[in-house]
Design goal:
The chain is built from 13 helices and 19 strands. It has about 425 residues and is of the alpha/beta class. Bound molecules: S-adenosyl-L-homocysteine (SAH) and FE3-S4 cluster (F3S). FE3-S4 cluster binds next to helix 6.
Length: about 425
Amino acid sequence: MSKKLYIETLGCAMNVRDSEHMIAELGAKEDYELTDRMEEADLLIINTCSVREKPVAKLFSEIGTFRKRRKEGAKIGVTGCTASHLGEEILKRAPYVDFVLGARNVSKITDVLDRHHAVEVETDYDESTYPFGDYRSNPYKAMVNISIGCDKQCTFCIVPATRGEEISIPTELIVAEVERAVKAGAKEVILLGQNVNNYGRRFSAGGEEIDSFTKLLRRVSEVEGLERIRFQSPHPLHMDDEFLEEFTANPKVCPQIHVPLQSGSTELLKRMKRGYTKEWFLDRCMKIRQMVPGVAISTDIIVGFPGESDEDFAETMEVLETVRFDQVFSFKYSPRPYTAAAEYEDQVPDEVASERLKRLQSRHDEIVDEIMSSLEGSVQEVYFEELRPGGRVAGRAADGRLVSVEGSEELLGEIRPVRITRGMRRSLEGELAG
Ligand code: SAH
Ligand code: F3S
């Protein structure tokens, strides 16, 4: 009988993909299959995030729950970015944990299983050519890594310390993976990396390689049967005109883009070492809006970065008003180990940061409500991927918005036109229009 694996994934899309890779390895080499019940699992894994302090705290409460609910003899593993940054310390704080496996070490999952208290957290370990299996939690859209690690040194960010330096995955491996996914039924791929549009600057293996993200988009779009390409996340600094032209002209590339702002103040952007100014950011976003009608632009914003004054924050609000982002992921600055900003002296008091976050979010809610209701009556091409309660089916419009209609299984995996009847804050409702 096969063994059971319970896996909980925190954090970003790259973590979700790392979990899929571990599930594939454990399935192929150790005969594990997934369960959503902790009590019946033989192995419980938490794949962690360390980008802010909160998810780190969550790790210890979650593994406490694992310990209480697991069946006798079941193993507990901690993987991902917090595993990388705390390493041995996790075993000191929670000796019942069986192994600790860092991000970009996930291919070692079957090796650490039987080594009591194994800790594998090398941040220079190179998994860029490892032949992971093809397990996918969503058969309709496939996440495909195009690089690992990150070469930027944004002063607030712990990721370079947990995921190491950036290595691009060889183009032929990416294309082969996309082809396999499409053959298995996916019409959409999401190309993943911490900084996707830096693709091609460094490969660990030799060979003829594509040296820019723009060219990679072109190459991937040649895969027959593939209909939609998304990518996550690009860096505003590398959004050159050539990239914007490809983004606009390539019919398979979806009109959806994440342009992480962080702050609207050029002064703060400098202290964050982001490499662009407020003007450059606005220029890129306005150009995207002008070149790609109906494009959805999302962003990440940090409030309360050390030294953020009322004027700096007002500049962030100004960018929000100008770009009218379709989605905003906003966070209070959280000081992280191994980052330069944690040492800055002018930390912003928590009440000030909380108040700014609230203002930003409530203004953005108003903007989103306006955008979503303005979509009523429009017709969107929706790729259906999930059954919902009450006889509904949900999918994504080309711009990434969640849309649901009345319907059943036969819509799954189909791309169909939908007339939008109701715009809500987080999703749209509609009816099939053909
Ligand atoms: N390049 C990555 C970014 C990873 S971190 C990507 O492709 O997704 C995701 C977001 O978390 C960042 O864009 C930033 O807005 C936020 N973040 C990172 N470090 C943070 C910190 N110390 N405090 C608060 N938010 C942070
Ligand atoms: Fe972090 Fe900046 Fe890289 S936000 S992941 S260091 S691009």
